[in-house]
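Look at a sample.

——
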Amino acid sequence: MRMFSNPLSRLFCRAVNVYPVEADRPGAVLESARRVLRAGDVQVWFPEAWRSPDGRLQRFLPGIGQLLLRSRAPAAPAFIGGAFEAMPRGRRFPRLHQITVVFGAAEPVETLREAGAGRTDEERIADALRRRVIALGAPTSDAADGALLTPSVAPADGIRESRS
């Protein structure tokens, strides 16, 4: 919650509707997110729960699956490229670097549950979303030897928006 450590950053975060997630209160976090979705608003969720230490996509935690199961909201995966290069973990100020955002098509929770792998419905939904983000262009280290894998082509239905 370092983003909220000083008054200026707290003011900025509140102005753009960014709220802290308290890891020791997951039920309250999920309930707050469900209220946002029930009100018909958009909820942006980072299911890795932690900024990547190396720029590779990390495992998605099952909380996103729980949120989607309870809210019945569809989910649109998004890949944010260049964010690690612009501001790696531990850096206080960003570098000038191009950021690319690629959005996938929104899918109902049932489709995600059927497409993912895992022991629980929550894990299957999280896994399916992660696979969709990888297909949009996210680098990952899923290979057995730890080699960096990057999809060669994003799906044709991906919407691309670039900002510098």
Notes: The chain has two domains: 1-42, 45-163. The longest helix spans residues 121-136.
